[in-house]
Amino acid sequence: MSPHGSSSSPGLPLFVLSLLLLSPPGTLAGGDGRPPSKPIVTPISKDGSTSLYTIPVKGGAPLVLDLAGPLVWSPCQPGHRTVPCKSSVCTAANRNHPANCAYTGTGQPGSPDPTCACTAYPYNPASGQCGSGDLTIAPLSANATDGKNPLFPVSFSAYAACAPDGLLASLPSGAAGVAGLSRQPLSLPSQVASRLKVAKQFALCLPGGGQTGAAIFGGGPFELQAAPPMELAEDLRKNALPLLVNPKNGAYYFRVHGIAVNQAQVPVPGGAFDLDRRQGTGGVVFSTVTRFTTLRSDIFSPLINAFDAATSGIPRRKPMPPYDLCYEASAFSSTRVGPGVANIDLMLDGGRTWTLPGASSLVQVDERTLCFAFQSMGSESTVANSPAVIIGTHQMENNLVLFDLEKGTVGISGLLLGRRTTCGNFNFAMGSS
Ligand SMILES: *[C@@H]1O[C@H](CO)[C@@H](O)[C@H](O)[C@H]1NC(C)=O
Q: Which residue's CA is the closest to the ligand 1 atom numbered 9?
């Protein structure tokens, strides 16, 4: 349930962080040998059986997106490179030790022994398992982009943790590991920024089933095909919201003031959405490894009651666990933004709202049945690091979400279907640079 278990650790002074990313040795080259300072684009696939998302950045092999993950990790070949324990990057790799993850006792950061190879502790967000392995330097690749098309291939190297093969359990078949996208220094967006000298931002457009979405790392425009083509990034930057920092992890939290159903505010206890920075609990956080937005029970109960009341005229079907509230699919009109139903609005800073229409609030469970696409955390809401609300991928799908790690902001487009496009409309045909 937590976006990421981690023990608390004192923050490193900023100057140490900026020294950390002194480039790993290895390839620097873009397609033609000059260091590219263009953002990179990669397709996003959705795995039908796990509902996880992957990007093929490890020489074509897919890594699972984990917004809260601090590291890039994958099993290694024998003879892989290692990183000295005394290096500052070893300290960075060990800053967010997964909760309940046993230390192996070797490769401790800071050891002055020159033969000591740094150990890192990769975490599988789908199974909750952790493992240990060498910190290594892995080759990654993607295409440079102008925000409209891929332009030319780019290879670069990044620090990554080796993982035992068994740690791949519960990931999509064929996945080679995980790409952590958090705010921490060894996440994929942080390393892309320092290696390719691009902006420390990324834009995520998660596709619905059967489509190919896109992620752009490094800033710049983000254009989707529509009539006419639509550039979305500039507007998102102008209307960005502040991210909140949880000192216990590197996940992406933002402020929510309330929830409304059909324009009427849902009665939740005061302060229900607040992030407790000292405990690292509460708050509203994005997750790419949680399918349906999951709410603490003191928020979930009034929300489902309000939605139930707002849809009282719609014929029901028997609840199909894990879904609590289901409807006769044929009873809804069909609109551009999904089944015609009362909107759910997240009330954000500055009077802004993130509207969740039918395509975001309901899920098709079978031919005849649509169900309410939110879940309760249950009563074990005191789990360490448990947020108040985990925004899941069903609600993020077909929204462009732009994270700026430098400024500490997030921009959310709202459901793109309302603008007659989808995350499946990035043009992956090669363009000319
Ligand atoms: C670059 O884009 C082309 C066209 O979409 C694709 O075939 C190729 O695999 C991409 N290369 C990398 C390194 O991602």
A: 60
Residue nearest to atom 13 of ligand 1 (CA): 142
pLDDT in tens, 266-323: 999 999 999 999 999 999 999 999 999 999 999 999 999 999 999 999 999 999 999 9
Residue boundaries of the structural domains of the chain: 40-217, 223-419
Ligand 1 contacts (CB < 6 A) are 141-143, 150, 153, 428, 430
Whether the bond between 114 and the residue before it is cis, its omega within 30 degrees of 0, is: no
* Continuous segment of H or E residues that includes residue 372: strand 369-372
| Mutate-to-test residue for ligand 1 from 143, 145, 149, 430, highest number of ligand atoms within 8 A of CB | 143
Q: How far apart are CA 202 and CA 197, in angstroms?
A: 14
Q: Do domains 40-217 and 223-419 have the same CATH topology?
A: yes
Helix (H, G, I), strand (E, B) or coil at 108: coil
For the stretch 76-127, pLDDT in tens is 999 999 999 999 999 999 998 888 888 988 899 999 999 999 999 999 999 9
Nearest-CA neighbor of 102 among 149, 145, 164? Answer: 164
CATH 2.40.70.10 corresponds to the domain 223-419? yes
Taking alpha carbons only, the member of 166, 161, 135 closest to residue 74 is: 161
DSSP 3-state of 327: strand
Phi/psi of residue 74, nearest 5 degrees: -170, 150
Residues 52-89, buried b or exposed e (16+ Cβ, 10 A)? bbbbbbbeeebbbbbbbbbbbbbbbeeeeebbbbebbb
Q: How far apart are alpha carbons 27 and 139 in whole angstroms?
A: 8
The span from the CA of 73 to the CA of 54, in Å, is 13
Q: CA 284, CA 365: separation in Å to the nearest integer?
A: 26
With CA atoms as reference, report the closest residue to 106 among 85, 91, 124. Answer: 85
* CATH architecture of the region 40-217: Beta Barrel (2.40)
pTM of the model: 0.92
